[in-house]
Amino acid sequence: MSEPIKTLPLVFDEPKGRGKPPRHLADFTLDERKAHLEGLGLPGFRAKQLSTHYFSRLVDDPEQMTDLPAADRAELVAGLLPDLMTPLRTLEADKGTTRKTLWKLFDGALVESVLMRYPDRVTICVSSQAGCGMACPFCATGQGGLQRNMSTAEIVEQVVAGARSLARDEVPGGPGRVSNVVFMGMGEPMANYKAVIGAVRRLTDPAPAGLGMSARGVTVSTVGLVPRMHQLATEGIPVTLALSLHAPDDELRNELVPINTRWSVAETVNAAWEYARITKRRVSIEYAMMRGINDQAWRADLLGDVLNSYGDWGWVHVNLIPLNPTPGSKWTASDPKDEREFVRRLEAKGIPTTVRDTRGSDIDGACGQLAAAE
Fold first, then answer.
1. pLDDT tens digit string along 337-370?
2. Topology (CATH) of 25-80
3. Which of 50, 223, 236, 325 is most buried, judging by how many CB atoms fall within 10 Å of its CB?
């Protein structure tokens, strides 16, 4: 751990000079969609029909939108349903139940999403930025830097595309629905806060305003942008907050998660506890297990003590993540016996702990690997 600490800029703005994605109905509320069509000289009432096609029927072929007049169909679709992203590659693992898609956005930026089907649920992991500006050294995305924020609609489209695949029986297991969305793909969600909250609202708005998901099925992760964590607690949307902690002490976390040089472990964990206190939703602590770096038994004890300092009312759960290493990286997964001891120590302190079921290691599963290779 001899590398110098990287200092982050004071403002997490995306690089200048990039154009904006086309405006899409998922960027708007239902009323705003109507106003947008009227501003284009088109009938506002068609907004609800287009919304039903997109969110309820999961239609992406204008020819199937037969309730729209043929003469106006192309103009209506162009007005509210422009193409946002093009799939470049889809890789499959776990007998087709894990599907990782590389998308090209309108300006050539590349992002990734992953659909994971389990016996009892379907989870989609989505990206919120093209690249990431948080510079965590063990993360493939962080090493590429930030290209730009994604729009609300670009984020939502990743979920809708997955929902279409399930509805069309393209994923083994029969037709299904998306039950969970995790903002754990490329990017730091809290650094693109407005678009991410817009996406959460579109995902949870009742159809046809949105996809009609339960907010309890949505998880928003962060490396610890404390003011945004406090803001999320005031939104009135009971999503799960996942804090990517990765170290219980400032000395190590400063190196693993450079934003820690601005908001310490104590400040970050306190913000997570406040979120749990206000929302009554249990927070998930994400901890990537790295061999010889952060997987020592004494760090498990320290992590338990840090979390227990806020009481034992079940406010928190630790999710240990076997590191999915990137090619040529010194960062590797912990030895299984060290992982088991880490779990034992946390559980001995009364901290509920699980080890994440890792998927997709054979399809460049670590976030950002596929885009970097392309």
1. 999 999 999 999 999 999 987 766 665 555 666 6
2. DNA polymerase; domain 1 (1.10.150)
3. 223
Distance CA 168, CA 176 (A): 9
CATH of 85-373, one of 3.40.50.720, 3.30.360.10, 3.40.640.10, 3.20.20.70: 3.20.20.70
Start-to-end C-alpha separation, the chain: 30
Q: How many Å apart are CA 127 and CA 111, to the nearest integer?
A: 7
What pTM did the predictor assign? 0.93
Active site residues: 112, 367
Contacts of 42 (CB under 8 A, 6+ apart): 72, 75, 76, 79
Nearest partner of 285 among 273, 293, 294, 297, judged by Cα? 273
Question: What confidence score (pLDDT) does residue 251 get?
Answer: 98
State the amino acid at position 248 in one-letter form.
P
Place of tokens 């659909």: 115
Instruction: Give residue-wise pLDDT tens across range 228-271.
Output: 999 999 999 999 999 999 999 999 999 999 999 999 999 999 99
Selection from 326, 329, 325 nearest residue 373 by Cα: 326
Q: What is the pLDDT of residue 6?
A: 39
Alpha-carbon torsion, ordered 12, 16, 19, 21, to 10 deg: 0
- What stretches in the chain show pLDDT beneath 70? 1-18, 359-374
Give me the residue spans of the domains in the chain: 25-80, 85-373
